[in-house]
């Protein structure tokens, strides 16, 4: 009996097939090509049997059969061309399915947000996007089309033989189930081992990636040699699992060949004994000649060949089953909201509300406790608190990257569960506490904020962020490579680059996480002025440990013990005259 895990994987593969595997054009072409290939095979067997009968029994001269030889050559060429079309159709379907699955996976990961991805092993996600998507190739390119031919080709051969010899057709029909039955019996074990092998690959990928990331620290602790032995052990275990899968695959192939050979031998024995006069049935009272016997024996291997090919490709199905479970887990991961627009929020800066939010990253570790926050449309609020106290968690709740265990997040009066988070995030400008620099051009690093930004807009954003002089000195301009292998940026320059990204966003809400951290006083003052300009007409939530940014906000709140409260230090009373300061 199949295990619940395998049943889950079967259901996952069916769901992926229904969602991504519908390609009627190529599917129809594959079936037509397969039928024509079978017709060419039957004609080839008939012509070859006729030629051999004419040469051996009738004694007809070779020259008189020249036209038949050309017909045989045409059948061979036509069969090869039909096979190429079949193979090409399967490859095209597989490419389309894998492309659609990978695109949907990336879209799902984007909708789930970075907070969800951070809770997963980076290596396992990479394996899913690369190895496990590629594991679907054999199933869609070969196994699924072969299911049709495992039924159509034998039926066409039976329909061809039955009018001449019901006994020969009966032998083929009676022995045909042997191959799929033993294929299924052997395949059950193959499915389980293939699933275990792919899961081991996923764990190993995540483990190795974590080791590579931590290698500098391991070297400092002089632990890298010990972990090298661990890597070797994990690699040996994976090699052992792989050899188990291959051993089972070769064993199942031998089993299928054995039963196919027995079935073909039975047909040969029947015709041999009939030609010797020991058997006299199955021919509708007509005598058996060499042409009919050769014709039937030539078709016997072709009768079993589709079933044998299906058995060979059954391991592609086992591999796809193993991968489908992990892929469907990601595809089914809730993106926290139904599809649809967020136009109900309204245009312009929305109000933001946290209504008695309780959240913990892990069980038993509560970061926010019945935390409430109300920000009117266009207001600016600064939140202070100790590191690790939950300030960044608040921003991620507003973005919909995290879901609270209790309470609700309201955007413009609507629950965040009822809006399209992807569209909502497009209306938000996020400035991380640790801005990322990609190993790409300056233009690509800026277009992370808005992919359709023109070069003029990119230059204006750089000037706005105070990088105009620096940009003017770049020989390659916007094509200047940054990051690894390119130009490096200082901490202040990286902050300004992040500010330029915020400038490029068509945002109604600004979520800024420590925008002036690690900056000197002069640079901090310049960044604060730019933020003050950006916040006009927008809703702003600013996280900070420093006093200078508090001048540009309407309210200051402290996050203490998982709750927001008014500051106890009245020295922060300077925020009362914010609007006048901004206007000046």
Task: Please explain how this structure is put together.
The protein has 584 residues and is α/β, with parallel strands linked by helices. It has 2 domains: 4-331, ABC transporter type 1, transmembrane domain (ABC transporter transmembrane region fold); 343-583, P-loop containing nucleotide triphosphate hydrolases (Rossmann fold). 61% of the residues lie in helices and 9% in strands. The protein contains 18 helices and 10 strands. β9 and β10 form a beta hairpin. α2 runs antiparallel to α3 (66-118) and α9 (224-275) packs antiparallel against α10. The protein starts with a helix and ends with a helix. The model is unreliable at 570-584 (pLDDT under 50).
Can you give me a brief rundown of this structure?
With 584 residues, the chain is α/β, with parallel strands linked by helices. The chain is 61% helix and 9% strand. Helix 9 (224-275) runs antiparallel to helix 10 (290-331) and helix 16 runs parallel beside helix 17 (521-534).
